[in-house]
Amino acid sequence: MKKLLLLLTLCAATVDAQTTNAPRTYFDAFNATPDALLIRGMTIIGTLDNQITYPVEIRAERLVNSQTTNKIYAVALRTKVAQQTQVDFIDYDELDALIRGVTSISQANSSITPMENFEVVFRTRSGLSIAKVGKGPKTVIAMTSGDVNGARNAMAPFVLDDLGRYLVMAKAKID
Questions:
Q1: Integer Cα distance of 38 and 64 in angstroms
Q2: pLDDT for the residue 16
Q3: Do 126 and 160 form a contact (C-beta atoms < 8 A)?
Q4: Cβ distance 64 to 82 under 8 Å?
Q5: Measured distance CA(143)–CA(129) in Å, rounded
Q6: Could you tell me the mean pLDDT of each successive run of 10 residues in the chain, 175 residues long?
Q7: CB atoms inside a 10 Å sphere around CB 145
Q8: Which of 13, 37, 127, 152 could bond to 66 as cystine, CB 3.0-4.6 Å?
Q9: Which residues contact 46 (CB under 8 A, 6 or more apart)?
Q10: Which pairs count as long-range contacts for 42-49, CB under 8 Å and 24+ apart, including other chains?
């Protein structure tokens, strides 16, 4: 009986270890398709590089499995931090909610709550988060990559508006 319990414990530990590297998005999962020729197309929509801690390139992307002709679309936010690029894919089915979320975050102020401080946050499937935090008269807007080493990327209010416009343009390109 002890051997069976030990075996089950080891199997459970192995299953947990295998799930830690699971794809974060549908686009990531599709990109991991084995034994198939994958064709990737990208269009650069724009770059956020003024009054933001780290530059962010916004791309519309399409991935096609040449054997099945199945395709999937996403928007990639590529944040350049030092010598690394952190990539967050936003699946097509998340885009509308993210666009509305960015607009709401942009318009948020202390009047949204009767409390002294406020925070509004939108998180995507990839772990990317966009937040606006108000503490008294001070407001901070930040985007944090869902990457393991995700950097906090502070930005000016107009940069958040630019991000919203780029997301709308990327969706239009995909549509």
A1: 6
A2: 45
A3: no
A4: no
A5: 6
A6: 45 48 85 91 94 93 92 94 89 95 90 86 93 88 85 88 95 93
A7: 24
A8: 37
A9: 57, 58, 162, 165, 166, 169
A10: 42/76, 43/173, 45/75, 45/166, 45/169, 45/170, 45/173, 46/162, 46/165, 46/166, 46/169, 48/155, 48/159, 48/162, 48/163, 48/166
Residue 107 DSSP SS3: helix
Q: Helix 95-107 crosses helix 157-174 at what angle (to 10 degrees)?
A: 160
For residues 143 and 154, give the distance between their C-alpha atoms in angstroms, rounded to a whole number.
Answer: 6
Considering only CA atoms, which of 94, 144, 130, 139 is closest in space to residue 112?
A: 139
For residue 72 the two structure tokens come to: 């999937």
**Tokens standing for 103?**
């607009």
